[in-house]
Design goal:
Shape: globular
Helix content: 55-70%
Largest sheet: 5 strands, mixed
Distance between the termini: 69 Å
């Protein structure tokens, strides 16, 4: 067993350590680096208050603490946190599955498979909060499985505390109550109402106390209501809505798991599902929170709000391959190659950083110019001294854009690809955002083609001029 742990930990570290990203790449990463860098002047609490909603309170607090403790750059501190927390996820996932199945071998296989998942690799090697979130969630589930076997109150309280901490990392952790409720249902004959109430009280106290202190009552209300309007569109009727829901689940799961793992899960569900019968309730309850979170467009390139789907998938594959050593070796070879290729891709320059380089060079060579970009690429202008026109709502901002372009005819105005394609095909990391914000909205580029002169400057930059009128 000890040798197995050493091998698993080494595999995790060797497949990730060489590909760590100390530069911000994904949408919110730029803000995390800026907040951590500002903590020496503002203090941790004030820095957290400067974050956007929903605030990832505990993530920012721990990130700032790690940065001050080890004295590295903000980017390196945040990447180190992602790497370390990801290792914690693997360790406690193995322990959870071992308790769940009464098999070290199945637990080990599930942990190994988890290490191979592309979406998990992205979370572990970039400045993202998902590794810390998953660690708190998996530790909570492990504590509650231990409680279901021992009935020791300490395990119940531990599970509630860890769930509360995960809630402080991200508000979507509330959906973890689905698998937790399933565990309690399975052991309902041993679970008293008093202990159930105790669990709830501890959870609310942990999840609420720090936020009350940092954000205040108004801030908490804003935090929990900030993205209620971002759910998948229900326009078009029930069948269209169902189609969008299924599309989101299939598309995002494919991205998170990668094609090899996704196809393997499908094969297991079709041909080997008998082995999963005993754990059917647990598997469904772990998948449901992920499927629900996938219905928010605000999910990033890898659909990161649905990250929890990697847990039931790795459990299914771990069970199916735990007695098939040859196949798990084959899977390991294929998936490791996929991770290496993904890691190599992460060494290239993503869209926003390419734009940032162009802006920095332009500031030096030309002084009198303006720029139009989208909300997804505005981070390229931080610290540049240039305040771009940032597109948030194409339907309402066409007239303002027209006035901005024509207000100073002597100034050159540039526009990038993300602005022209907005609200579709928006950059996030090395790829484009999975799902558009809205359906049926005219892209800015369509209006520009009809009303403006457009000249390509580089692969992603254009000069725009002589716009006439708006689009009624």
């Amino acid at each position: 067993m000890r040798l197995g742990w050493v091998g698993l930990i080494l595999y995790y570290l060797l497949t990730r350590s060489f590909f760590l990203q100390v530069r911000p790449v994904y949408y919110d990463s730029f803000e995390y680096v800026r907040l951590v860098a500002s903590m020496s002047k503002l203090g941790i609490v004030e820095a957290i208050r400067n974050s956007h909603q929903p605030v990832h309170t505990l993530y920012i607090m721990i990130a700032g603490g790690v940065n001050q403790l080890i004295g590295l750059s903000p980017g390196l501190s945040l990447s180190a946190l992602s790497l370390a927390a990801g290792l914690g996820v693997v360790i406690f996932w193995v322990l959870f599955v071992k308790e769940l199945t009464n098999s070290w071998k199945v637990g080990y296989c599930a942990g190994l498979v988890l290490c191979m998942v592309p979406g998990f690799f992205v979370a572990n090697t970039n400045i993202l909060y998902e590794s810390l979130l998953l660690m708190a969630q998996v530790m909570s589930l492990w504590s509650l499985i231990k409680y279901s076997k021992t009935l020791k109150l300490a395990w119940l309280i531990s599970g509630a505390v860890l769930l509360g901490l995960s809630q402080l990392v991200f508000i979507g952790s509330l959906f973890l109550l689905i698998p937790i409720a399933t565990i309690f249902w399975i052991m309902r004959d041993k679970m008293s109402w008093g202990r159930l109430v105790l669990f709830g009280v501890v959870f609310v106290m942990i999840a609420g106390t720090l936020d009350v202190y940092v954000l205040g009552a108004g801030g908490i209300i804003e935090k929990y209501l900030s993205h209620t309007g971002d759910l998948v569109s229900g326009s078009g009727g029930g069948l269209i809505l169902l189609g969008r829901v299924v599309r989101n689940i299939g598309y995002i799961s494919w991205q998170l798991l990668g094609p090899v793992m996704a196809l393997l899960v499908i094969i297991i569900l079709i041909f080997d599902r008998a082995k999963l019968a005993r754990l059917r309730l647990i598997l469904i309850s772990l998948a449901l929170p992920a499927f629900l979170m996938m219905q928010y467009w605000h999910a990033g390139y890898y659909g990161r709000l649905g990250m929890l789907v990697i847990l039931p998938a790795s459990l299914m594959v771990g069970i199916a391959l735990s007695k098939r050593s040859f196949w798990i070796i084959c899977l390991g070879m294929v998936m490791t190659f996929q991770l290496i290729m993904l890691g190599i891709k992460q060494q290239s320059t993503p869209y926003v950083l390419s734009l940032k380089q162009w802006v920095e060079e332009k500031v030096i060579t030309e002084s009198d110019w303006k720029f139009v970009t989208s909300d997804n690429a505005r981070m390229a202008f931080e610290d540049s001294g240039i305040a771009p026109f940032v597109i948030h709502d194409p339907e309402r901002e066409i007239q303002d854009l027209n006035e901005y372009i024509n207000s100073s005819p002597e100034q050159k105005v540039y526009i990038d690809r993300s602005a022209l394609s907005y609200p579709y095909w928006q950059p996030d990391g090395w790829e484009d955002h999975l799902l558009s914000k809205k359906n049926g909205v005219m892209a800015i580029g369509e209006w520009v083609e009809r009303h403006c002169n457009l000249k390509e400057v580089s692969g992603i930059i254009y000069e725009i001029s002589d716009c006439v009128g708006d689009d009624e």
